[in-house]
Amino acid sequence: MGLNAQAYIIDPAVLLLYFIGNEDAKGIVEAIIEEHAYGYILEPMLADLFQKMVEHFGYTVASSRLEAIKNSNIRLINVDFELIRDAGRIKASNPSMPMVYAYMIALARKFSATIVTVDTRLRVNDPSIKIEYISV
């Protein structure tokens, strides 16, 4: 992958949509899997995704799909002190914003990445942060 490859911060709901066949989600996730783009997801968000996949597919299928994500080109990002500080600063200046949004914005800044989400409530006042919405 080149240095100018697109980078994405992936909302867990986008991965769920990918697994149920959403074409817009498929385009982004497959670009990451095929190494045409970078993809990042915060590790704690995988618990939310796993819970939703268990509800939708059952435990066995959800477990195998979670394993596939772990072994894919989607980079799992740990919460570290720098990320906590950045997300906290974002949340402090936007008190009504859910904390998960603050983390996604902090990751987008860190990796110069586009946030990919289904949640149209996620809005950013910073023109350097791009958001791509996937229709459900």
What does this protein structure show overall?
There is one protein chain. The protein has 136 residues and is α/β, with parallel strands linked by helices. The chain has one domain: 3-Layer(aba) Sandwich (Rossmann fold), CATH 3.40.50. It is built from 6 helices and 5 strands; from the N terminus they run βααβααβααββ. The chain has a 5-stranded parallel beta sheet with strand order 3-2-1-4-5, sandwiched between helices. The mean pLDDT is 94.
Helix and strand pattern = EHHEHHEHHEE
Which CATH class?
Alpha Beta
CATH superfamily: 5'-nuclease
Q: What value does the average pLDDT take?
A: 94
Q: Quickly give the structural class.
A: alpha/beta
| Count of helical stretches | 6
What distance lies between the first and last C-alpha atoms, to the nearest angstrom?
Answer: 29 Å
Fraction of residues in H or I helices: 40-55%
Shape: globular
What portion of the residues fall into strands of 2 or more residues? 15-25%
> Main sheet: which strands, in order across?
3-2-1-4-5
- CATH topological fold name: Rossmann fold
What's the alpha carbon Rg, rounded to whole Å?
14 Å
The overall number of domains is: 1
Largest sheet: 5 strands, parallel
Number of strands: 5
- CATH architecture verdict: 3-Layer(aba) Sandwich
Indicate the low-confidence ranges by residue numbers: none
Features:
Rossmann fold, globular, 136 residues, alpha/beta, 6 helices, 5 strands, five-stranded parallel β-sheet, single chain
